[in-house]
Design brief:
The protein is α/β, with parallel strands linked by helices. The chain has helices at 12-23, 39-49, 57-67, 83-90, 101-107, 109-112, 125-133, 167-170, 180-188, 190-203, 241-249, 281-291, 295-311, 319-330, 338-357, and strands spanning 2-7, 28-35, 54-56, 72-75, 95-98, 120-122, 142-149, 210-214, 220-226, 231-235, 272-273. The strands form two sheets. The chain has a six-stranded parallel beta sheet, with helices on both faces. A five-stranded mixed beta sheet has the order 10-9-7-8-11, covered by helices on one side. The chain is globular and about 55 Å long. The N and C termini lie far apart (57 Å).
């Protein structure tokens, strides 16, 4: 039985993880819970799963990880505030099931240099798919990683037609039900850009061998192409409980956690090239990832400020990525440390706000 700590227990990832655990009490025991500020919800979860150790906020979450013995820590915290808890997990012997992509992206080498072999398991559906497909060959046999994107609500639109789209339209994602920032990031494809950076850091594949293809059905979650021309894809109906369960029990599969595809009915899967003119965020993210150091932190922080400004009615949809690019272009980076990451984020938010008020 694996002892599990869940960080971000009241969010989407955390609540689905608890569903997986509740359905498999013979496999998992919850020994710690952490959330932002929803004390009532966490207390209810603690009572249901007989958990003694709870925490609120990233600092308490980090302390919880250091003091409560666990086999697996699921980091489902939203945003770069999850970096501290991620680093705390890596100080322990526990496996880090990482759903908090921002901590890896902004932390970069601060995270990857601390990871023991086999200690980090990705929970994002795309990176879980790649991790599964990579078991089909050796690292030297990998030719390309191919991340799939649904295309969001604006797939097939021209750039000019997006000039006046509303926040409500940007939140109308065709597949996933997510929070405000993540759903908007899926509309701009900033989220896919972040996932490209994450894929590079997780799997060590150069950016010029990581591609994005648009797959509206969201059935194939990502693919690995090997040097012999073979491509291995992971396919399943969209359900985050599958990658969550793999994160909790890697490399074992949890029986019955998700429903399989129905091969008795007709269906069609399509794949389209990414329109880089309409969705420039992926190319910008690759440039940011190659620059490294604090540039990914600046990219992420500036985007969060621009998304909030868009939903407040202060800027248009197209201004989101345009603002991020302006902030990235204005940034200079020298040293790289935990302190410089947080300072770069503060600078990026202030710079984005300054540009948005000009």
């Amino acid at each position: 039985m694996r002892r599990v700590i869940i960080l971000g227990s009241t969010g989407s990832i955390g609540t689905q993880a608890l569903e997986v655990i509740a359905a498999n009490p013979h496999l998992f025991e919850v020994v710690g819970l952490a959330a932002g500020s929803n004390r009532e919800a966490v207390s209810a979860q603690a009572a249901e799963f007989s958990v003694e150790h709870i925490a609120f906020g990233p600092d308490e979450a980090s302390q919880l990880v250091r003091t409560v013995q666990a086999d697996v820590v699921l980091n489902g915290i939203t945003g770069s505030v999850g970096l501290g808890p991620t680093l705390a997990v890596l100080e322990t012997e526990a496996v880090l099931a990482l759903a908090n992509k921002e901590s890896l992206i902004v932390g970069g080498e601060l995270v990857t240099s601390r990871v023991r072999p086999g200690q980090l398991v990705p929970v994002d559906s795309e990176h879980s798919a790649i991790a599964q497909a990579l078991r089909s060959g050796t690292a030297g046999e990998v030719s390309r990683l191919v991340l799939t994107a649904s295309g969001g609500p604006f797939r097939g639109r021209s750039r000019e037609s997006l000039r006046d789209v509303t926040p409500r339209e940007a939140l109308a994602h065709p597949t996933w039900d997510m929070g405000l920032v993540v759903t908007t990031n899926s509309a701009t494809l900033v989220n896919k850009g972040l996932e490209v950076i994450e894929a590079h850091l997780l799997f060590g594949v150069p950016y010029d061998r990581i591609e994005v293809t648009v797959h509206p059905q969201s059935i194939v979650h990502s693919m690995v192409e090997f040097v012999d021309g073979s491509t291995i894809a992971q396919a399943s109906p969209p359900d985050m409980r599958l990658p969550i369960s793999l994160g909790l029990d890697w490399p074992n599969r949890v029986a019955g956690v998700g429903r399989p595809l129905d091969w008795t009915v007709s269906s069609q899967w399509s794949f389209e090239p990414l329109d880089t003119e309409v969705f420039p965020a992926v190319a910008l993210a690759k440039r940011v990832g190659e620059a490294g150091r604090t540039y990914p932190a600046v990219f992420n922080a500036a985007n969060e400020q621009a998304v909030l400004a868009f939903h407040a009615g202060r800027i248009g949809y197209l201004d989101i990525v345009d603002t991020v690019e302006r902030v990235v272009d204005a940034h200079t980076a020298d040293e790289f440390s935990l302190e410089s990451v947080f300072e770069a984020e503060r600078w990026a938010r202030a710079e984005a706000d300054r540009l948005l008020t000009v």
